[in-house]
């Protein structure tokens, strides 16, 4: 299972709000909703997040094997 829990910690650490992502960086509310509910995003979106936050995918996603 893929979780975006690390993303929320990264945003807190970098003091970036979801409001800032939407208003200043053009993130769609739909993309943020998908992230909040651990739904699929594209690799392009993951790349955009990593570029914006100057981080690696490990700072955005966590993998846990399915049971």
Number of domains: 1
Query: Which CATH-level-2 architecture?
Result: Orthogonal Bundle
Using the alpha-carbon principal axes, give the shape: globular
Regions with pLDDT < 50 over 5+ consecutive residues?
A: none
- Total helices: the number is 4
Structure characterization notes:
It is globular and about 40 Å long. It has a single domain (2-63), classed as 434 Repressor (Amino-terminal Domain) (Orthogonal Bundle). The protein contains four helices and two strands, in the order E-H-H-H-H-E. The mean pLDDT is 95. By secondary structure, it is mainly α. It has a two-stranded antiparallel ribbon with strand order 1-2. Helices cover 54% and strands 6% of the residues.
Descriptors:
67 residues, mainly alpha, 434 Repressor (Amino-terminal Domain), two-stranded antiparallel sheet, 4 helices, 2 strands
């Amino acid at each position: 299972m893929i979780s975006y829990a690390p993303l929320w910690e990264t945003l807190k650490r970098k003091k970036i709000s979801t409001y800032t992502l939407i208003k200043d960086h053009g993130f769609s509310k739909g993309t943020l909703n998908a992230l909040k509910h651990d739904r699929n995003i594209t690799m392009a979106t993951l790349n955009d997040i990593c570029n914006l936050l100057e981080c690696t995918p490990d700072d955005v996603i966590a993998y846990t094997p399915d049971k």
